[in-house]
Amino acid sequence: MEPLIHKVCLLTFLVVFDATSSVADLSLIVPPDPVVASAGDDIILPCHLSPQSSAVAMDIRWFKEGDFTNPLYLYKSRTGEEGEGYKGRVSLFTQELERGNLSLLLKNVKVSDRGRYKCQASHLDWIQEPAVALQVTIIPSLVIRAGQCYRSP
């Protein structure tokens, strides 16, 4: 009977070890270059797990650097919630979480959205939060009135 107990203990250890080591081996990947958008655009702030692994059981928080308590989007316990000031403008691709895609869709980009955003993912005692920069430009428009043509700011 004793060898059976050893086998069960060993099997339990290997399952726990495999689960913790696989999470520890993960990295969150964001682009090194800024995402560039024009005011009014819909953009994606890219973030994914490497190697590819499911993020469904993870807690995910997208926030503007320095504003952790006011997330754009919070995914916890398999439920997503848009942050104050971002309702109707942000979402995760929840069907892609199984493939490790944590990218955030930000609609109708505003000039005030420019800055650095952190993609934070956590599971058990593993946590990472790389930053991705967003640059927002304003495209001047051409206005024609009574035969005169000028650029608006």
UniProtKB/TrEMBL annotation:
SMART domains: IG, IGv
A biological-process GO annotation: regulation of T cell activation
Protein's UniProt keywords contain Thylakoid: no
Keyword Cell membrane belongs to the record: no
A GO cellular component annotation in the UniProt record: external side of plasma membrane
Signal peptide as annotated in the record: 1-24
Domain Ig-like: 24-139
Transmembrane parts of this sequence: none
Gene3D superfamilies per UniProt: Immunoglobulins (2.60.40.10)
UniProt-listed InterPro entries: Ig-like_dom, Ig-like_dom_sf, Ig-like_fold, Ig_sub, Ig_V-set, IgSF_BTN/MOG
UniProt keyword annotations, A-Z: Disulfide bond, Glycoprotein, Immunoglobulin domain, Membrane, Signal
GO molecular function, one term: signaling receptor binding
Highest taxon of source: Eukaryota
Record localization: Membrane
Name under which the protein is recorded: Ig-like domain-containing protein
Native species: Oncorhynchus kisutch (Coho salmon)
